[in-house]
Amino acid sequence: xxxxxxxxxxxxxxxxxxxxxxxxxxxxxxxxxxxxxxxxxxxxxxxxxxxxxxxxxxxxxxxxxxxxxxxxxxxxxxxxxxxxxxxxxxxxxxxxxxxxxxxxxxxxxxxxxxxxxxxxxxxxxxxxxxxxxxxxxxxxxxxxxxxxxxxxxxxxxxxxxxxxxxxxxxxxxxxxxxxxxxxxxxxxxxxxxxxxxxxxxxxxxxxxxxxxxxxxxxxxxxxxxxxxxxxxxxxxxxxxxxxxxxxxxxxxxxxxxxxxxxxxxxxxx
Length: 269
What we know:
The protein has 269 residues and is α/β, with parallel strands linked by helices. The protein has helices at 17-24, 63-73, 79-83, 94-106, 138-149, 167-170, 184-197, 245-263, and strands spanning 2-5, 8-11, 31-35, 38-39, 51-56, 86-90, 110-115, 154-159, 176-179, 202-206, 219-224, 227-231. 32% of the residues lie in helices and 22% in strands.
């Protein structure tokens, strides 16, 4: 029968998954088996056009094999669209760095990272940086982190402050923009400019993820065509209520998931 193994067409006489694995690998080897998107240790009968992935836990695969494995772990027909997408992330703090890592793990083909700042010690309470990154630009540090997660993603960086003078040029080639600024004026500048100058682009912004209020108050709202807002809308950072990793990462997850839905053509929340 004709099947695919790690994304490549194969003709086999094997009738079961275990037989197929024995044919291609030492069965005692530390291999993960995925059948049609489902990881399993059980034996299954094989059918025509099945897709099987064998993952060697200790080995970095080639790009073709890696992308086949990404496809295998995604919902069917998702990875192709994700790989073809281009997403900008404006601000690489608690929101932006978490969004970037989430989208990198999802396999977004082109990430555009924008921030002007360097990594400093207080960032480590909620942002995707390490002690080794202290004093380095966030754009460069995060690009290096993403390369260690998925070296086949294209990452473009702009180490720059977003201003009225450069905002249109910075985002002209991006399909979807994530607003992840701390500063309210910067948020307003980016959102208003994108909505006015690029009405067909989609923007996912955030407001209200400070402190340790209930997780369930963070939601995603569709504010207008192509404009989405994540957060609780009221609990921002202030004296006595800081930004902490759990709640910030919940909001970043909302933004990342909305970006994924938009990539897949799902525009309702």
